[in-house]
Write a structure and sequence with these properties.
Blueprint: H1 2-28, H2 41-48, H3 52-64, E1 68-71, E2 77-80, H4 85-88, H5 90-125, H6 128-143, H7 147-164, H8 168-181, H9 195-210, H10 214-224, H11 227-243
Antiparallel strand pairs: 1-2
Length: 246
């Protein structure tokens, strides 16, 4: 019986540590940026497929590293701190990304194909109202001054393109693939290094959708959605260099 209990405790410890590594990695690849509030516990636990007990313990471990902090009162919650993950946990990000990137390659390819299909449908089916809203979202993205603002504008823009495709199954599939491709967090990593590239790609994609250029829109979307993988690879390079003492 004692051995069984030790086994279960070991499994729980491994699961919690693995989840803590994923949370650190989400910060490392800028899925969550300094000052950003994490989703509520219940929502985050559901999206990550873990219990709230496991999530709380993982959050505690990350908080001990100084990477997140809890704020009380109105507007409180768990927020990403300003401490640098590269100073306190580069190994955690490296370990996670070395495993996850190869595992996700086929999924990234599938996601790009699906998003290309969505963009083609949007270019064929968009209405005047869709066009107005999509243009507005693109302007909002261009005005973003923080990664938090950019991520919110990105989510709105791609949500509107999904809406313009006029198929709820595609919208559901896009959301599921986004969650799977972002380590379960469902939020795009937004590294400042790639912000200008993202704006250029968004501008090209929106132009094709608005002009009804379906094939070009599909190609633009497929190219754009490789940016998630490139962001993760950039995070792995930084983590590996820092872990090696670079």
């Amino acid at each position: 019986m004692a051995d069984v209990c030790k086994h279960h405790l070991g499994q729980a410890h491994t699961k919690t540590s693995s989840l803590a590594d994923r949370l650190i990695t989400a910060i490392a690849i800028a899925t969550y940026s300094p000052g950003e509030r994490l989703p509520p516990e219940r929502e985050l636990a559901d999206s990550l497929g873990v219990s709230r007990v496991t999530l709380r313990e993982a959050l505690r471990q990350v908080a001990e590293l100084g990477l997140i902090e809890t704020r009380r009162g109105r507007g409180g919650g768990t927020f990403v701190a300003t401490a640098s993950w590269e100073d306190v946990a580069p190994d955690a990000a490296r370990r996670t990304l070395e495993i996850e990137i190869p595992r996700l390659l086929d999924l990234f390819d599938y996601r790009c194909l699906v998003e290309g299909m969505i963009a083609r449908a949007a270019a064929e089916r968009r209405t005047a109202d869709d066009t107005t809203k999509i243009r507005s979202a693109l302007r909002e993205f261009g005005k973003a001054r923080t990664m938090i603002e950019a991520r919110a504008a990105d989510r709105r823009l791609h949500g509107l393109i999904c809406t313009a495709a006029r198929n709820p199954h595609l919208t559901t599939l896009s959301a599921r693939l986004t969650a799977e491709a972002t380590l379960g967090f469902g939020a795009e990593p937004y590294d400042p290094e790639f912000l200008a590239v993202a704006l250029e790609q968004h501008t090209e994609l929106v132009g094709h959708v608005i002009r009804g250029e379906s094939d070009a829109a599909g190609r633009a979307a497929q190219a754009h959605f490789t940016l998630t993988l490139e962001t993760m690879r950039a995070g792995l390079r930084r983590a590996s260099q820092r872990a090696a003492g670079g």
